[in-house]
Design brief:
Length: 186
């Protein structure tokens, strides 16, 4: 638990550092970038429900040319009385969607696949975010492009499968909320 807490605050700090990115991108690329940011906006507030589970704001990162893997992030709340587990999912442009955990061991960041999935206890909200739990797209057959959305599914042990749409944030984004916050500025 301690390791996770540290990781989450590191991710939060990093997200503060990168919050100005969408703004710079918008001023650099003019109206097209602003239009793309506006189009991508609703996804940040998107909520998906399956059984007693609520999935919020899935997002992923643009992949640099040739990258075969990508991380994806979202928030899951269990409103039910029974525990459930996120065990994986699917993405048409990827070979597999795995549930991973990032952790720091002796100062080295490592990630591992959670073979048994990620448990979401009754009443609990679990956030998948950079530096912690995440979904890993492996064997990507095409690049994820900023401003686009990609559709896929999430697979839960008990609740079953649900379709979600990931908003594609800039390369290096630490948070899926960057565009959302920027939106409130004007
Ligand atoms: Cu991973």
């Amino acid at each position: 638990m301690t390791a996770i807490t540290i990781l989450l605050s590191a991710a939060a700090a990093a997200s503060l550092l990168t919050q100005s990115l969408p703004l710079q991108a918008a001023s650099g690329f003019g109206d097209a970038a602003r239009a793309a940011a506006t189009l991508a906006e609703p996804a940040a507030d998107t909520i998906y429900k399956v059984g007693a589970l609520v999935v919020e704001a899935p997002w992923t990162r643009a992949t640099p040319g040739g990258a075969r893997v990508g991380g994806a992030y979202l928030k899951i709340t269990n409103t039910g009385a029974e525990s459930d587990r996120l065990v994986g999912g699917s993405l048409p442009i990827a070979a597999a969607v795995e549930v991973h955990q990032m952790s720091i061991t002796d100062g080295v960041m490592k990630m591992r696949k959670l073979e048994a999935g990620l448990e979401i206890k009754p009443g609990q909200t679990v956030e998948l975010k950079p530096g912690g739990y995440h979904l890993m797209f492996t064997g990507l057959r095409q690049a994820l492009q900023q401003g686009q959305s990609v559709k896929g599914t999430l697979q839960f042990e008990k609740a079953g499968s649900v379709e979600v749409e990931y908003r594609v944030e800039p390369i290096g984004a630490r948070s899926g909320e960057g565009g959302k916050k920027e939106q409130h500025v004007h």
